[in-house]
C-alpha cells in the first residue's frame, strides 16, 4: 500500500477509535441512584381544648295534653230541660258549682210540700201518743200498782209514732234533695267537651247530659326510653315533685309553662318498652293555656352527670368517633358514648376529667396516629356552643 493511501485512511481510523472510546466510557458510567420525594408536611388543623365538667342535661320528651279529671255529667232525676247556661256548648267554660242545666222543678217542689205535710202529721201523731202515754202512766199509778205492762203504757204505739216521724222526715230530705238535683252542676271549674242533651229535651235519671273536664290542671304522659331513664333520678312510683318546662306551639306562637312530674305509670309498655312519667301543669285560662290534645315538648332536668362534654354534632364523626390530638400532636380516634343529641348539640360522656384537644377542622383521610400540626386554641369548659 502506498504512503499516499495510508495518509488518507488515518483520519477515519482516529475518528472510529475516538467513538469507540466514548462508547466504552459511556457504558462504564454508573446509573444515578433514585431519591425519595420529600415527605408532605403534617396537616394543619384547628383545635379546641375542652375540659369535661359535671352537667345537668335537659332530657327532652314529648306528649299530648290531656285532662287530669274528665267526667260525664248525668241527670240524677228525670224531667224536661227548661234552662241551659249560655256557655252550655262544646268548648264552653264554667265555674265550680255553676248551674249548667235546669230540669223542670214543679213536680219536685210539690213532692217537698207533700213531704212536709207528712212530717207535720207524724209530729202531731207523736205528740198525741206521748200524751196518751203520760195519761196511761197516771191511771196506772192511781190503781196503786207498782208495775205496768208496756202495752198499757202505750210504749209500742209511741215507738211506732217516732218511727213514722223519722220516716216522714227522711222522705222530706229526699224530696228536698231531688229538688236540688234538678240543677245539674259540675264539682269543679272546667270546660265542656261535648253535650248529649239540650234545652227542651226530656232526660231520664242516670242519663249522661254532657262530658266535661277540669281545666285548671292538665297532665301530660311522657314516654321515656331506657337511655333517658338512665339520665334521670326518677324512681318508678308516685309522690314525685320533679319540676319540668313545657314548650308549646300553636300556629306561629310559642310559649313555655312550668309543670311538675308527680308520678309514673303503673307499668312499662310491653310493646315499646317505654316507661311513662306523668307531668301536671296548672292551666289558667288565657291565650297561653294548654289545649286538650295539643302536642308539646317537655324538658326534664337530669341528675348531675360527671365528665360531660357538650359539642356541636358535626364534631362527632361516623361510629360515634371524636378526633382528639394527643401530647405528641398525633391523631387519636376516640369512640365516645353519646348521652343526648338535641337541637344540633351532642352531649358525650368522657372517660375522665382530663382536658381534651378536639379537632374542629375537616380531615379527608383521618388515620389513627397520624401526625398533625395544630393551630393555637383556647381551653373551654364542658360545653361548646
Structural class computed from helices and strand pairing:
alpha+beta
Report the span from N to C terminus: 105 Å
- Unreliable segments (pLDDT under 50, ≥5 consecutive)? none
Q: Helix amount, in percent?
A: 10-25%
Beta-strand residue fraction? 35-45%
Number of β-strand runs: 25
Which short descriptors sum up this protein?
385 residues; alpha+beta; 6-stranded antiparallel beta barrel; 5-stranded mixed β-sheet; 4 helices; 25% helix; rod-shaped
Question: Helix and strand layout, with pairings?
Answer:
Blueprint: H1 3-28, E1 44-45, E2 47-50, E3 53-55, E4 58-67, E5 70-74, E6 79-84, E7 93-94, E8 99-103, H2 106-142, H3 155-180, E9 183-185, E10 190-195, E11 202-203, E12 208-214, E13 217-224, H4 226-231, E14 238-250, E15 253-264, E16 275-282, E17 295-301, E18 305-312, E19 321-325, E20 331-335, E21 337-342, E22 345-349, E23 356-359, E24 373-374, E25 379-380
Parallel strand pairs: 1-24, 2-25
Antiparallel strand pairs: 2-23, 3-18, 4-13, 4-17, 5-12, 6-8, 6-11, 7-10, 8-9, 10-12, 13-16, 14-15, 14-17, 15-16, 18-22, 19-20, 19-23, 21-22
Helix pairs in contact: 2-3
Polypeptide structure, described:
- This protein is of the alpha+beta class and 385 residues long.
- Helix content is 25%, strand content 36%.
- It has four helices and 25 strands.
- It has helices at 3-28, 106-142, 155-180, 226-231, and strands at residues 44-45, 47-50, 53-55, 58-67, 70-74, 79-84, 93-94, 99-103, 183-185, 190-195, 202-203, 208-214, 217-224, 238-250, 253-264, 275-282, 295-301, 305-312, 321-325, 331-335, 337-342, 345-349, 356-359, 373-374, 379-380.
- The strands form six sheets. It has a six-stranded antiparallel beta barrel. Strands 20-19-23-2-25 form a five-stranded mixed beta sheet, with no helix packed on it.
- Strand 21 (337-342) and strand 22 (345-349) form a beta hairpin.
- Helix 2 (106-142) packs antiparallel against helix 3 (155-180).
- The longest helix has 37 residues, at 106-142.
- The model has no long low-confidence stretch (mean pLDDT 84).
